[in-house]
Amino acid sequence: MENERKLTIARAMAEATAQEMRDDPSVFVMGEDIAELGGVFGNTRGLLEEFGKERVRDTPISETGFIGAAVGAAQDGMKPVVELMFVDFFGVCFDAIYNLMAKNTYFSGGNFNVPMVLMTSTGGGYSDAGQHSQCLYGSFAHLPGMKVVSPSNAYDAKGLMTAALRDPNPVIYMYHKGLQGMGWLGTEAGAIVHVPEESYEVEIGKAAIAREGHDVTIVSIAQGVHHGLKAAERLADQGIRAEVVDLRSLVPLDRDTIRASVAKTGRLIVVDEDYHSYGVSGEIIATVTESNMADLKAPPKRIAYPDVPIPFARVLEQHCLPNADKIVAAAREICGAPVPA
Amino acid sequence: MENERKLTIARAMAEATAQEMRDDPSVFVMGEDIAELGGVFGNTRGLLEEFGKERVRDTPISETGFIGAAVGAAQDGMKPVVELMFVDFFGVCFDAIYNLMAKNTYFSGGNFNVPMVLMTSTGGGYSDAGQHSQCLYGSFAHLPGMKVVSPSNAYDAKGLMTAALRDPNPVIYMYHKGLQGMGWLGTEAGAIVHVPEESYEVEIGKAAIAREGHDVTIVSIAQGVHHGLKAAERLADQGIRAEVVDLRSLVPLDRDTIRASVAKTGRLIVVDEDYHSYGVSGEIIATVTESNMADLKAPPKRIAYPDVPIPFARVLEQHCLPNADKIVAAAREICGAPVPA
Amino acid sequence: MQPAKDTLAWMYEKMVTSRRFENAIEKIYMEGKSPVFNMADGPIPGEMHLSDGQEPVAVGVCAHLNPEDVVTATHRPHHQAIAKGVDLKKMAAEIFGKATGLSGGRGGHMHIFDADVNFACSGIIAQGMGPAAGAALSRQIQGKPGVAVSFIGEGAANQGAFHEAMNLAAVWKLPMVVVVEDNAWGISVSKEASTAIQRNSDRAAAYGIPGHYIPGNDPMKIYEVAGEAIARARRGEGPTLIEVETYRLAGHFMGDAEGYRPDGEKDGLFEKDPIPAMRAKLLADGNFTEAELDALEDKAQAAVDEAIGFARESADPKPEDALTAVFA
Amino acid sequence: MQPAKDTLAWMYEKMVTSRRFENAIEKIYMEGKSPVFNMADGPIPGEMHLSDGQEPVAVGVCAHLNPEDVVTATHRPHHQAIAKGVDLKKMAAEIFGKATGLSGGRGGHMHIFDADVNFACSGIIAQGMGPAAGAALSRQIQGKPGVAVSFIGEGAANQGAFHEAMNLAAVWKLPMVVVVEDNAWGISVSKEASTAIQRNSDRAAAYGIPGHYIPGNDPMKIYEVAGEAIARARRGEGPTLIEVETYRLAGHFMGDAEGYRPDGEKDGLFEKDPIPAMRAKLLADGNFTEAELDALEDKAQAAVDEAIGFARESADPKPEDALTAVFA
Ligand SMILES: Cc1ncc(C[n+]2csc(CCOP(=O)(O)OP(=O)(O)O)c2C)c(N)n1
Ligand SMILES: Cc1ncc(C[n+]2csc(CCOP(=O)(O)OP(=O)(O)O)c2C)c(N)n1
Ligand SMILES: [Mg+2]
Ligand SMILES: [Mg+2]
Fold this sequence. Notes:
Chains A, B: GO terms for molecular function: oxidoreductase activity. The complex is a heterotetramer, with 2 copies of chain A and 2 copies of chain C. Chain A is an alpha/beta fold.
């Protein structure tokens, strides 16, 4: 395509942020290593050079302090973009996130708004062990008062970032390291897509049909969407037409799109890199069962991270992670095709 | 009953702890206001007097510090019992809980064990607003490496406490304020039951059938069990025989007991005082659907706390909380009886 | 820097307003809670942390603040809210959980928010530290006037949030003042049992900023020291840490039997009640007549009566409103 | 207190062991990672934080410790582990993710645990502070000998966990020593940009305990000051806070281009490499001959070779073992 402008998610995020910073002087960025270094995961690269130290601030290693500060600034008319370097670190600062940022709008009856974006990296697969590889989607999505998004490709990454920056509410923006486009982490090629130069929004709370199909619905988010797409490709060769739903947003959750897809296919697989129990996979299955039980031709399946901390060794970690093989096997099983293929 | 020895949950917890402290010198207790005051919720009353300041220690308001310290002590051969006064405060110390306490056994490949009990109060209903009324069952149960229990009555409270104290793993012991037996919080009468004086264990990971029935299964934990029992009583008058499952433990989750009950009744209602989405209710529904879809005569229902922070005003909070009325209505609906009765 | 007469009058009036407000709340809180004391009952359910005795801190500091300045307060926020100028009627209504309350009843006594005067509080110990630093940062970035004051208890100075926000404020030279209300107790745990040093103001050394300790719960002295600190912040010279000795004349929360207090401690405190002390001082200094002070007290009482009346008469929120205002 | 000759020999040998170990890891880490550098590839995947240059802190402190003493370390733990006596073969195997590793490959380089010598570490900044306080508390309650040492970076001293555990250790007079390795950087953020004061040792004032700053990355000076602090802790006199100036001769992690460093900073550091400096000093003082030091180096190299060989040859864990050891 001639006018293709392929960007990584990292660059798409930085571009959206820069564009909003040009238009809106209240936007500023802070976090660990986000200024001079441009972010460990590249998503703030170039911002310091363009906007200077006042608006692009490296912080001490004090997540409670600076996320709490972001809330205070947001309540005071600013629009902070803060980074929690790895989502795994949420434990040192979750009070500032879930009990302060997420609730002050409600506690104040709308007296104060808390417009801010909390960016955080998720995901494993590169042997970074159990304090640097989690997704924790469910941990954030479970608690009220914050929106939660996670893009699977650069187009959505930019549009969701712009939407988040314009949202009057706190938005948790989770970017998956395996999709980020940093060479040193490997890159999912499918995440690097055409991104228009001009500013645009992807609506928070709307899922996308990443691939159409009629036999089975594969619901996922971020990296899981790519596993789903690869599985769908292989299933197509085997005569099974899988539909892949990219949630893009966990809060609000687009229950309608999920339900409509399952109403059509009658079968559901949820792919979730977060822990198996009490999380995203259970919620999606419950959502469908509550409303579309009669449509279900087979019990729903989940391919999720098992309920164990994430191990370091490659063979151990890879054993646990969702992948296309596992999805293919599950799809064949519920579609009544012999497993293995 | 002649030899009845009715205790509150608070006293049952303190009794179990005292008995273990007598037998096992490695057990010690720390937390805010647990010594001199005997715990804001009474569950450490009498311990200071019997065991002295060395083993019953008031702490500074430093949850990260003292829960982290408990992990260090547990790894060093002690058996700490720590209190997080309200579960709502988990945000200030969750790293020490989920990323340290829960994972060090795994990270060390069993090199170190972390035998400790983290007691924490849950639940609302008495207008303590959104930072003092949550249950957060799902937030703890979602993350691997810690067992999670919550009793609905004093018998289980003592037995689970003893089991937790003898478990070589970290156990989160959640006690519901509405059941605790502190007059100033109101008391659910059904929680105050006969408790044998001698020491005994209630197995962690085994649900109980709190009431038998054949038409619908009501699954819950802690306070929700009492709502379920009250609803079952009323439903019985209306010809609907509800079975009430008291989970008692969320991790491990007794999936077998839930499934067996639904296999019998064909109908499922989950009652959960924690937030609706991405939590306990979704997990239970998914658990049943995965295995027993064919048994289900109607779509499962959940009566959970809606996805909003917990409001202060009585009318607002009561509107949100699960109660017997809501359960009765849901049960009648899925049992095909006219609603309202 | 001694307060001018009108400031003294304001300080006295606000101290009295605060105390009379607490007296009214205390009484109403007990309605419906006897013979059995159950927090859930009565026109004001839930926890209730009264500020009796701690009024000097609130007025001594807030006398220097404008509505545009920011205050973050604690689980014990009434005196601070009143001194900061929070709408008393709407605040009372919020404490009653009424539709006319500041937050329509969603927040209650531990969650008093008034954007008009930039006041917020929280039930989590030391949680306000970060937001105060952030508000100060917001003013610094925008070049807009205003300082941020975070009030915390002495028990809160052992929380990680305290340390992180102090360092942030100091390294970025933010216009922030931290005021520690040292009432010697964090619920039942004494400062001595919880805190490795005697004076939290000495912790200023950990951040290279000024630290001041003010003994005696003395509104004049607080006024003076806070004035300097706030002026310093306004000049862009960075944060200050102040610890004030004060007294908690009520229990930690209502229903607290205070068995943990050494015998007689409470009696000694009542003798040092700062309101009669200030009245006596204003008279002794010859600045005010009895009549003038009586008039201030009457004004305070009238404001309290009006606010309580408003709260009582206001309607409950609609139950379904529980589901609104989660998002803007 | 100057180290005796056998202690000096031990210190030098351990410093060299640590450096040679890092050199070996550095080389192997790059295997399979070219032409494209992808962390996920090669025999040692994932993040890798080398300790080159920081060896003096580890040996100066650990020279005073027995296996029964407790150490909690950081994301940059190799030098500390080696000085504490962690089994080098099993540690290497863990870093390779092998079944024979300390944790059977579950932990990797940021999660080195050896119960035999009471060593643990963590990838979360300042997370080890609480556990060190707890281990110290455990000894105090049990009346058992042993101190706990928590090593952290200078960046970690701005975390809440630092403050909370320091206060706890001080108020309970725990046998604990906190050693801050000040390598001037927390990834790309300088100490100056992150920390409100120059020396974290001054933060001891916030806890009423002794604080010592040791300039120059000098193993002898570290030995001396740490020795006093540890002896003090053993005597039951409570914790000490020590900050040591040290140098990070490698990037923050492997792959770090260090563009944030001022020009020439790195060259200056290499000139101050503590290992040649110690060798020169030992020779100059006349305590050791070249041959003696060569022999120590050979011994260090042999240990490293053996450990790396063991790790290389060991088998991968069984994939299903990922699901075991969650619970005891
Ligand atoms: C993080 C956290 N831990 C514990 C509590 C429970 N709590 C409420 S008030 C209080 C004592 C606070 O003491 P202090 O800071 O001195 O304030 P005071 O009550 O004396 O005004 C405690 C421990 C809490 N609200 N938040
Ligand atoms: C709570 C937390 N925040 C951030 C990080 C990311 N991180 C890893 S190392 C590091 C820098 C640490 O600096 P310092 O404490 O000085 O140790 P050094 O790396 O210099 O040895 C950061 C920010 C982390 N691991 N944990
Ligand atoms: Mg206090
Ligand atoms: Mg450093």
